[in-house]
Specification:
This protein is mainly α and about 190 residues long. Helix content is about 75%, strand content about 0%. It is a multi-pass membrane protein.
């Protein structure tokens, strides 16, 4: 199977997700800082989600640069990932419009967790057909980020009802961890 179609479809879905999220940003009801202040939670949730979508796009791109083969399981695993990512606009808008209320924060964390699990499943199926000796296999030997992220999400979900600020900071921490350039795959390619 040709991976180009999967990559193009995924890029299109991710572009639509970002478009939907930005369309949720409403024009302020006033002008100046007074009009912008109520939008800070909405804009903050948008920025965080935009960064997450960017991280997934970047990692997806790098992963598929290292992949030689795909199959039907990979196609379904990729759709599974895109399903969870497609819920980002809903969770982002709900959380931002409700000033990071505990339930909205927990749901946001749950969607982040499910997207992380879906990406892990995608990598699993890719590694089944692209051996451990492949560029992908060699690149994904150290998975500390993949193991640390779900722990942060689970803790964030659990404490979102008690200490919402800490939950928010945990979600931000995961974004920061992944935002830092991940050279695991890049180092195997010579420009």
């Amino acid at each position: 199977m040709n991976k180009g179609r999967l990559e193009a479809f995924s890029d299109g879905v991710l572009a639509i997700i970002i478009t939907i999220m930005v369309l949720e940003l409403k024009v302020p009801k006033g002008y100046g800082l007074k009009g912008l202040l109520p939008l800070i939670p909405v804009f903050g949730s948008y920025v965080l989600s935009f960064i997450y979508v960017g991280i997934y796009w970047n990692n997806h791109h790098h992963t598929f640069q290292a992949v030689k083969k795909i199959n039907g399981k990979v196609l379904w695993a990729n759709l599974h990932l895109l399903f969870w990512l497609s819920l980002f606009p809903f969770a982002t808008a709900w959380m931002g419009e409700n000033n990071f209320e505990p339930l909205t924060l927990a749901v946001y964390g749950l969607i982040l967790l499910m997207a992380a699990i879906a990406y892990f499943i995608l990598e699993y199926f890719l590694l089944q057909i692209n051996t451990k000796d492949s560029v992908l296999g060699k690149s994904l030997q150290n998975k500390y980020k993949e193991y640390l992220s779900p722990i942060f999400y689970i803790v964030g979900i659990s404490i979102s009802f008690f200490v919402p600020l800490i939950a928010s900071l945990l979600y931000i921490a995961v974004a920061v961890i992944w935002f830092l350039p991940d050279k695991r795959i890049e180092k195997h390619f010579v420009d």
